[in-house]
């Protein structure tokens, strides 16, 4: 079975003390994971080291950075490089999140550059893609997300692709309280997998985890994750509530 992943994205939330307490509350539940299940905490940069120390002895629990620079090093004040993340033994990094694309004007090319740096350093990218409301209403979401994959991912070898996690974000469902129906989620996830199969192979497509990233909550996670092509979730708001995120972990296939 493909890896089933519950990935928390704390975004720019929580003080250090609040973050420590949230992590403690979740870990204190001692949720057992199967061999194919993975839990990832995407925490703000200042909390990476401490969070990693809390989970690095736990089976199938990891920490992710929420972003990285597309430059290897140099005079880029305020940026964080892939090599810096690697030096902290961080194993995952979220790239191409819709908020980074929208608010910071990140392009598919820049995201592609980040992807290459991460894979070159042995980190696993969580690559985000997805369409805004206008595209969904126009019915062109398939073409939109296919373009994101082609321009950022499809220069990779099949071997490198194995180390990428994809997170599909229906931007119209993030922070709005709206959630795609299970049918909509399954449909777009299956389409993404078919695009990968066409570019690489069915074997490559069947091996890649595709997460749903649109308002996953404790009360809809099980239904969403039951879809054959949905391999878990990239969770925003619900990941800031210990009891909710614990239930989301438990909902993994």
Could you explain how this protein is built, in words?
The protein is an alpha/beta fold. The protein has one domain: Aldolase class I (TIM Barrel), CATH 3.20.20.70. It contains twelve helices and eight strands. Strands 7-6-5-4-3-2-1-8 form an eight-stranded parallel beta sheet.
Brief summary:
The protein is α/β, with parallel strands linked by helices.
What percentage of the residues does DSSP assign to strands (E)?
15-25%
User: In order across it, which strands form the biggest sheet?
Assistant: 7-6-5-4-3-2-1-8
Under CATH, the topology is which?
TIM Barrel
Q: What is the CATH top level name? A: Alpha Beta
Count the domains.
Answer: 1
Task: Present the secondary structure layout.
Blueprint: E1 4-9, H1 16-27, E2 37-42, H2 48-55, E3 61-65, H3 82-87, E4 92-95, H4 98-103, H5 108-120, E5 124-129, H6 133-138, H7 141-152, H8 158-161, E6 165-168, H9 182-199, H10 202-207, E7 210-212, H11 221-225, E8 232-235, H12 242-250
Parallel strand pairs: 1-2, 1-8, 2-3, 3-4, 4-5, 5-6, 6-7
Question: What are the defining features of this structure?
Answer:
single chain; alpha/beta; TIM Barrel; 12 helices; 8 strands
């Amino acid at each position: 079975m493909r890896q089933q992943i519950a990935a928390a994205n704390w975004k720019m939330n929580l003080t250090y003390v609040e973050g420590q307490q949230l992590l403690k509350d979740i870990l204190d539940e001692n949720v057992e994971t199967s061999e194919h299940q993975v839990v990832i905490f995407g925490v703000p940069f200042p909390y990476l080291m401490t969070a990693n120390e809390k989970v690095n002895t736990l089976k199938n629990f990891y920490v992710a950075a929420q972003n990285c620079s597309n430059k290897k090093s140099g005079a880029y004040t305020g940026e964080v490089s892939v090599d810096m993340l690697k030096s902290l033994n961080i194993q995952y990094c979220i790239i191409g999140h819709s908020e980074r694309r929208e608010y910071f004007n990140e392009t598919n090319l820049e995201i592609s550059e980040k992807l290459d740096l991460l894979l070159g350093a042995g980190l696993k990218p969580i690559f985000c893609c997805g369409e805004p409301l206008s595209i969904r209403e126009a019915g062109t979401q398939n073409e939109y997300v296919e373009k994101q994959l082609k321009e950022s991912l499809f220069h990779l070898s099949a071997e490198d692709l194995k180390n990428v996690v994809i997170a599909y974000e229906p931007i119209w469902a993030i922070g709005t309280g709206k959630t795609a129906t299970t049918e909509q989620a399954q449909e777009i996830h299956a389409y993404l997998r078919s695009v990968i199969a066409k570019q690489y192979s069915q074997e490559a497509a069947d091996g890649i985890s595709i997460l749903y990233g649109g308002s996953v909550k404790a009360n809809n996670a099980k239904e969403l994750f039951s879809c054959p092509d949905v391999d878990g979730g990239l969770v925003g708001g619900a990941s800031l509530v210990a009891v909710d995120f614990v239930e989301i972990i438990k909902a993994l296939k």
